[in-house]
Each structure stands twice: as C-alpha cells, then as structure tokens.
Amino acid sequence: MMVNNSTIIQGERVKLPTKYGHFELIPFQEKISGVEHIVLIKGDFEPKDTVLTRIHSACATGDLFGSLKCDCGEQLVESMKLIEKEGKGVIIYLQQEGRGIGLMNKIKAYKLQEQGMDTIEANVHLGFAPDEREYQVGVEILNALEIQNIQLLTNNPDKINKLEQSGIKVVQRVPIIIKSNQFNKDYLSTKENLMGHQLSDNDT
Ligand SMILES: Nc1nc2c(ncn2[C@@H]2O[C@H](COP(=O)(O)OP(=O)(O)OP(=O)(O)O)[C@@H](O)[C@H]2O)c(=O)[nH]1
Ligand SMILES: [Zn+2]
Questions:
Q1: Which sites bind Zn(2+) (predicted)?
Q2: Domain range for 56
Q3: Mean pLDDT score of the chain
Q4: Would 35 be classed as within a structural domain?
Q5: Which of 153, 198, 196, 158 is nearest to 171 (CA)?
Q6: Which of 99, 138, 162, 180 has the most beta carbons within 10 angstroms of its beta carbon?
Q7: Residue 108: inside a domain
Q8: Contact criterion met (CB below 8 Å) for 157 and 77
C-alpha cells in the first residue's frame, strides 16, 4: 500500500537488461536526506505472494571493484542469478555503506584491520556499534512494492529479526554462501563466530 506519510519517493520503473538476467529498476529517494536506494525487480507480485528478496547493503569496494576482502560483490551477483532463475524476485540495494558507517569510516576501519584488529574491534575503536544498520527504509520500500512475505537471501539472523520487528514476514531464509579466499577468510570467520552469521553448510 502506498501510504501518504511515507518518507520515501518512488521513481520510474524501467527495463534493465544485465549480464546476469533481465530485470527492471526502480530508484527510491528518502524525502528528508535525499539518499537514494535502488530496487532491481523481476516479475509482478500479488500482495499475498512470497517474494524471493535480497536486501543488500552497499559495499563500494566489493560491489564495484570486486574486492576479495569481503563476500558482498559475489553475493550480489549470486542474488541476481538466483532471481533470474526463479523468474521473480527483488533486490533492494540500500545505501548504507560499511554497515552504516559510510565509506570514510569503513576505510578507517580497514586501516585498523591492516594493523591487526578484526572487523568488530575496528568499528568499536572508531566509536560505532559493530553494525549500525537499520532496515526501516528497506521495509518502506517493501511496503511501497506491496510485498509482505519474503524468502530472504541472507546468512545474517539480525537482518531477519529487524525485518520481522517491522512487520515483514520472513517465510524462509535462503542461505547465500560464497566460497572464502585468503583475503576474506578472517572477515568471514569473525562474522560467523562473533556476529552470528550462518556460514556453514549445516547451519539452518
Ligand atoms: N564497517 C565495516 N563494514 C564492512 C566491512 N566489510 C564489509 N562491510 C560492509 O558490510 C555490509 C555487508 O552487507 P550485506 O552483505 O548486505 O550484509 P551482511 O551483514 O553481510 O549479511 P548477508 O545478508 O548474509 O550478506 C556492507 O555495507 C559493506 O560495506 C568492514 O570490515 N567494516
Ligand atoms: Zn563488502
């Protein structure tokens, strides 16, 4: 439902053929801050449908440049491929770089990680919570698209909890596990051991 007190503006819906499949793109903008988010969507939905969904936080290093220090870029491509295969689904690309601390601070955190801290210690050293993200805008975007029930592509239980608290029904979690490499194995094991991410095949 498009509610009048919405804090976001929905843009035009255009076709976007890509290397990984044929999608449509809809930009959204937060009314107060002007921050822009991107939706990639495939297919049409009824409000009762359960929609394969990826809520992805921006990672300039991983998504744009193919950084091997994290799993973001590969998760994004894998989500696009899975939605193409399914024939229906949505990716909400939220501009919350660096788990919500912005690029400048994420790179400060990377510097601290070069000096031996892990990804949590670096955030905390800079005065932030390990994860500063909120999913309220993502929920508003789902509301605008009239999506209420989702199959969420994630390994992160915190995302599921925050979405469910905002009234979205996560009917199923779909794991999206990327093979580790020498540059991201410490980052991924910190996510698994200290941030509760479900990265092993036998996790559910
Ligand atoms: N502060 C900080 N942010 C990072 C670091 N590495 C990656 N990120 C950010 O972490 C976020 C990862 O986003 P997602 O892939 O959507 O979320 P996730 O928590 O990994 O959960 P999944 O749904 O399982 O992928 C992005 O905003 C990245 O920019 C890091 O070392 N420090
Ligand atoms: Zn990343």
A1: 59, 70, 72
A2: 13-96+135-176
A3: 94
A4: yes
A5: 153
A6: 138
A7: no
A8: no
Q: Considering the domain boundaries, does residue 163 fall inside one?
A: yes
Residue 27 to residue 35: CA distance in whole angstroms: 11
Question: What three-state secondary structure class fits 185?
Answer: helix
Q: Do 174 and 151 form a contact (C-beta atoms < 8 A)?
A: yes
> Which of 59, 152, 192, 200 is the best mutation target for the ligand 1 pocket, counting ligand atoms within 8 Å of the beta carbon and taking the most?
59
Which ligand 1 atom is at minimum distance from the Cα of 54?
23
Which CATH number fits the domain that encloses residue 143?
A: 3.40.50.10990
Q: What is the pTM of this model?
A: 0.94
Question: Closest ligand 1 atom to the C-alpha of 71?
Answer: 15
Structure tokens at 9: 């503006």
Distance 68 CA to ligand 2 centre (A): 8
Q: At 7, is the secondary structure helix, strand, or coil?
A: coil
Query: Is residue 4 in some structural domain?
Result: no
The H or E element containing residue 180 is: none
- Write the CA distances from 66 to 59, 61, 69, 70, 182, integer angstroms: 10, 7, 9, 9, 15
Smallest CA-to-CA distance from 152 within 181, 182, 175 is with 175
Each residue of 43-88: pLDDT tens digit?
999 999 999 999 999 999 999 999 999 999 999 999 999 999 999 9
Backbone angles phi, psi at 27, to 5 degrees: -85, 150
